[in-house]
Structure formats: structure tokens, C-alpha cells
Design a protein that fits this description.
The protein is α/β, with parallel strands linked by helices. Helix content is about 30%, strand content about 25%. The strands form 3 sheets. Strands 1, 12, 13, 14, 15, 16, 17, 18 and 19 form a 9-stranded mixed β-sheet that branches. The protein binds pyridoxal-5'-phosphate (PLP).
């Protein structure tokens, strides 16, 4: 918890559940990322948290933006971004969204299929396009699966085709999966990209850009490598595969920029046991899967939770949300422990919850309001 967040909670005593996020920490994270990979241009992945105070601060710092839809593009423009600082990075775009983005001046688009490439040629002629490769997501706590990306062979054909149908074949991208805890995943993906660059050059297509995606991890319950380790591994692999002829490099961090900048304050609604002698207590909070903690799906992201009784004796717990849905359980299998003194009415803090929380909150499920947000 940053001093500004602590002061806000103390002075304002906000209603729970709520996200409180320190925008100065966003700036620190941006600078740390920049220092770890100075030659890469940062395209903040807006979906991690699109709040105006965050976007405005990043505009001031010279960030570019990776937007997944036309609404996110409009958020960026409203925050002061120029259209040519925005990449429309979703490989699945409605024609109307492509048309609106193009009309707004966006000129950089992702794709991973022939069908999407044709849509771009028709509705965003002359634009720079990059093809997303399917890469291994091993080592990622929140993998992006096989939903995105295409094979090297298809990407090769599509990049050749792009130039023939009036688009600018600009580069290649990948995403190694979110909360990626290994540096080798980036190295392997860069190897793939490097080979395809060479191959395409021989076919007469000179690509100029590599988009390394996001994935950079935040420390939740387990330690993760420092951001500099990722920077070093990426630069090592880029130099190995491209020598001195380095292409433009883009990175799209989302979680890393905002994750540790905020926390969710919540209240304990009920602590009970299923059977009198059951060692496991059930702790119900006023926020769960549907209130914004969607990344606890499959217990994938393991948030640390601070309580007023930390340091005192603990016992095993299952932790769940307040809704009437049986899927609204945060942790049942991950051996969470909480203080035995924890009781109804206690305030707890879900730490490092600045990414992928506010936007995942349901609208009025069971009547619960969407998560309140405070930016300090
Ligand atoms: C979600 C996403 C990101 C951000 O990923 P993080 O793991 O939050 O860094 C970057 N690029 C694309 C294309 C994405 O879909």
C-alpha cells in the first residue's frame, strides 16, 4: 500500500468494495519498464485499466496505447493521445469499428487471419498492419490460449498478401500470455519472429517492426523475476536474431503498469464453518468473482489479502464473494490462511489489484453496484 492510498483510506473511509489506485505508482512502473527496455516504445494495454487519470498520466509520459476496441480508442483520444500513438491490437474487429478507427486517424492494425486482412484492406486502405503469431503460453498464470495468433507459414503468406492488396506490411506480434513468469517464453517467440523476418526478406517483403506484446508479471502470492531480467532477456534474444539491424520494437504492458498501483478494499460479511469441527472457515467478502476479481477463475491469480489482524494466529480458509452464484468462490484449493480473529465487519485489502478488476465487474448482478473507483 502506498502512503497516498493509506492516507485516502484513513481520511475518506470510502464505502466498500472499492478500488483505490495511486497514479504516481503508474508513473513509476512506466519509468521502470522504459528503463528495462529503453529502445522499445511502450503501448499501454488499455484493457488492464482504462480510467481517465491513468490514460492522462501516460499521455504526459509519452506512452502509446494498445486498444482492443473503438471505445478504448475513444478513451485514449479523450485523454489527449494522438491517433498515430494508438494501435488497434485486437485481431477480431467489427467492420464498423475498423471504419471508425480509420476515420479517427488510427493507422496501425493487428490481424491473424486472411479474412481479417481483407477487412482491413477494404476499410483501412494503406494502413500499417502486423500479423500476430501463435506462440507458447507456457509459464503464464493467465494464458491467452489458442484464441489468437496464426502459424508461421500462414503469417508468411498473409504478410506477402498484405502488400499486394494495398496495405503496408509493417511487422509481426505475439503475446506470451499474461502474468508470464518466465523470460524464456519471450526468447523463444523472438526466435520465431526472427526466422520469419529473414524468410520474408528473401521473398521481397521488408518488415520493420516487432511487437513483443505484454505479459510482464506482478508480484502476487509468489515472487516473480524483476522487470530488468525480462528486459535483458529480450534484448539478448533480439540481438542474437537480428544483429545490428534491429527493427522497431513495441511492447504492450498492461498488468505491469497498473497492477501494483492499486488495491481493493473490501469488508468481511460473514465468517463461518460448514460443520462444527470443520477446520476450514468460510470467509465471505463483499467482493467476489462478479464484483471484479474475475482473474481468480481457476484460482489463477492469487492475490495477497491484508487484514487488521495480520501477524496473529491463522487458520485455513476458503474465500468467497457475496453473490448467490456457486461459481462466486475466490479460493478453495489454494491453501489460503487468514487470522483466527477475523470477523464480520473487518476491512480487508486485496493487494495489487489495479489491473483487470474494474472492467471485469458485473453490472448489478444480484443488485450489487459496479466496483467504485478512486484515483489518488
Ligand atoms: C491483454 C493484452 C496485452 C496486455 O497484457 P498484460 O499481460 O496485461 O501485459 C497486451 N497486448 C495484447 C494484444 C493483449 O491482448
Amino acid at each position: 500500500m502506498t502512503p497516498k492510498i493509506a492516507q485516502f483510506l484513513r481520511d475518506r473511509q470510502p464505502a466498500t468494495p472499492c478500488l483505490v489506485l495511486d497514479v504516481d505508482r503508474v508513473e513509476e512502473n512506466f519509468r521502470a519498464m522504459k528503463q528495462a527496455l529503453p529502445i522499445a516504445q511502450i503501448y499501454y494495454a488499455v484493457k488492464a485499466n482504462p480510467a481517465p487519470p491513468i490514460l492522462q498520466r501516460l499521455v504526459k509520459l509519452g506512452s502509446c496505447f494498445d486498444a482492443a476496441g473503438i471505445e478504448e480508442i475513444e478513451f485514449c483520444l479523450a485523454a489527449g493521445a494522438q491517433p498515430d500513438w494508438i494501435s488497434f491490437g485486437n485481431t477480431i474487429k467489427k467492420v464498423s469499428a475498423i471504419q471508425r478507427a480509420y476515420a479517427a486517424g488510427v493507422s496501425l492494425f493487428a490481424f491473424d487471419s486472411a479474412e481479417e486482412l481483407e477487412k482491413l484492406a477494404a476499410h483501412a486502405p494503406g494502413s500499417r498492419v502486423y500479423c500476430r503469431l501463435l506462440v507458447e503460453n507456457e509459464g503464464a498464470d493467465w494464458p491467452l490460449s489458442r484464441k489468437f495468433g496464426t502459424t508461421v507459414e500462414t503469417a508468411r503468406d498473409l504478410m506477402i498478401r498484405a502488400g499486394r492488396i494495398g496495405l503496408d506490411p509493417f511487422g509481426l506480434s505475439f503475446h506470451v500470455g499474461s502474468q508470464q513468469t518466465t523470460t524464456s517464453s519471450y526468447e523463444a517467440a523472438i526466435g520465431k519472429v526472427g526466422m520469419l523476418f529473414t524468410d520474408l526478406k528473401e521473398a521481397g517483403v521488408n518488415l520493420r517492426m516487432v511487437n513483443l506484446g505484454g505479459g510482464f508479471p506482478v508480484r502476487y502470492s509468489s515472487e516473480v523475476p524483476e522487470i530488468d531480467r525480462f528486459g535483458d532477456a529480450i534484448m539478448g534474444a533480439m540481438t542474437k536474431h537480428f544483429g545490428n539491424a534491429l527493427p522497431e520494437m513495441l511492447i504492450e504492458p498492461g498488468r505491469f503498469i497498473v497492477g501494483n498501483a492499486g488495491l481493493v478494499q473490501a469488508e468481511v460479511v460473514l465468517v463461518c464453518r460448514k460443520g462444527k469441527d470443520d477446520p476450514v472457515r468460510w470467509v465471505y467478502l463483499d467482493i467476489g468473482r462478479f464484483g471484479g476479481l474475475a482473474e481468480t477463475e481457476g484460482e489463477a491469480i492469487k492475490y495477497r489479502i491484508a487484514t487488521p489482524h495480520d501477524g496473529m494466529a491463522t487458520g485455513p480458509v476458503a474465500i468467497a464473494g457475496p453473490t448467490c452464484d456457486g461459481a462466486d468462490i475466490l479460493y478453495e484449493k489454494s491453501n489460503y490462511r487468514m487470522p483466527l480473529a477475523l470477523s464480520c465487519g473487518d476491512k480487508v485489502e486485496v493487494l495489487d489489484a489495479g489491473a483487470y478488476v474494474t472492467t471485469y465487474a458485473a453490472q448489478r448482478f444480484n443488485g450489487f453496484l459496479p466496483l467504485a473507483e478512486h484515483y489518488v
